[in-house]
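Anyone up for a design puzzle?
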């Protein structure tokens, strides 16, 4: 809903050839988030305290800190910072209709989507 696997693959492909440190951190952040999400569904760890999930969260946090601290040297890096901001401002609703409605109501989210499209050529929400 928020990010199709096709959009994620396209972003990861674009990031594979960049040397922009912000874009590299974005790739690391996406991988850490995917790892965390895969581990978060473990019914044996409802409080997310297993070492692997804690490590994934630490990697995500470190990559986010890098993305915030550095100046991008490419469009991919700037798009990475838009995606990071989106993750923190994300409408956060799992219902696609309510999610789209919130985006339509908030000019800031609309602007972020425009910048994302201008930088990546992708329609839709920033890949997080």
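Challenge accepted. My sequence:
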């Amino acid at each position: 809903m928020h990010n199709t696997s096709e959009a994620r693959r396209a972003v990861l492909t674009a990031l594979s050839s960049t040397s922009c440190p912000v874009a590299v951190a974005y790739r690391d952040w996406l991988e850490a988030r995917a790892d965390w999400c895969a581990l978060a569904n473990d019914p044996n760890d409802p409080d997310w305290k297993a070492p692997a999930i804690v490590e994934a969260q630490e990697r995500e946090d470190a990559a986010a800190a890098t993305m915030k601290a550095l100046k991008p040297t490419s469009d991919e890096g700037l798009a990475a910072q838009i995606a990071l901001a989106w993750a923190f401002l994300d409408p956060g609703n799992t219902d696609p209709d309510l999610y789209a409605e919130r985006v339509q109501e908030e000019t800031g989210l609309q602007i972020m989507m425009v910048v994302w499209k201008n930088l990546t050529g992708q329609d839709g929400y920033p890949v997080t």
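A detail worth pointing out: The helical segments are 5-15, 21-40, 51-69, 75-89, 96-105, 107-120.
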